[in-house]
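Working notes for the structural subgroup meeting. M.R. asked for a predicted model of this chain before we commit to crystallization trials. I am recording the input and output together here so anyone reviewing the notebook later can reproduce the run.

Input as submitted:
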Amino acid sequence: MRFEKETVAFCLAFVISFGLTPLIRMIAKKTGAMCYPNSRSVHRTPIPYLGGIAMYLGSVITMSVLKTGENIAFPAIALGGLVILIVGVIDDLWPLKPWQKLIGQFISAVVVVRLGVSISFLTNPFSGEILLLGSIALPLTLLWVVSFENLINWSDGLDGLAAGIVGITSATMIFAMNEAGAVHVAPEAAALAGAAFGFLPFNFHPASIFMGDAGAMYLGLALSVLSVQGLVKSAVAMSILVPILTLMVPISDMAFSILRRKLSGKAASQADKDHIHHRLLELGMSQRQAVLAIYLVSLGFGALGLVSGFVPLSTGGPLAGLAVLGMFVVAYRAGLLSLGHKKTGQDRSRRG
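Returned structure, recorded in token form:
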């Protein structure tokens, strides 16, 4: 039966993550690992941290049970993920400076590379030509891992947002991996999706637990490894569009955030309340509506990425490009990607 192993991986990771989250929540409360409201918070009462531990255990335990001998994704996710999980827990309990967190992210990326994960070649999506990267493979892979860690961390601004985006992205990657011939990595993607969705019932608004930086950065690292091992190095050129397109909302949000802060003379790591999810709240959406809207866009772009794998390269590339351009135009016109704060209604943002 097709997708049998992926189904088992998803269900097992879901059950483990779902079962462990209440226990982690209780431990967080007893140890004082709480997120207290501040000027950038959306929540009004203290919420337990450390939910990322449940997702890490849910996905890694599942991967350890179902891993194949040829797959190096599992050890990279397990060990690299453990490093970034520890860095994130420390940051959640005793906030680190941006450069300290960046060092931790870099160390986790080095662990991933040392375990054999590397973007050694890329495939031209239009010609199908394979480009060997040579000496730039190492720095490109390190940048890829660290970028994904920050990408998911920055998107964790509303209840359920990051977990849902990662779940959707991982689920779409299962189908892309099977199409690209990377079937040995697909169960790991299913395990990550199951862990994220198993945590989501406790994290969706109103959240009773947060994943914290530990969870967000772990999910980012796991996605980066899976995308490299399952898609980036695939000879099926259009398959790389699946994770990129599905993550288009957080990617565009991160790009505009960095540009906006640089133009205003701020550090790229300095937090603000001008992210896409903040703008949706300003437009009058509730937290649930804003999160569901971003889910819907992510699903749409993920489907586009999958469809692009079944059409000629000359059609799929321009189709994806036009869709992305259209999203940018619509989002910019709606004030979701402007480079300065624009009041579009009552400022209801409470958590960054």
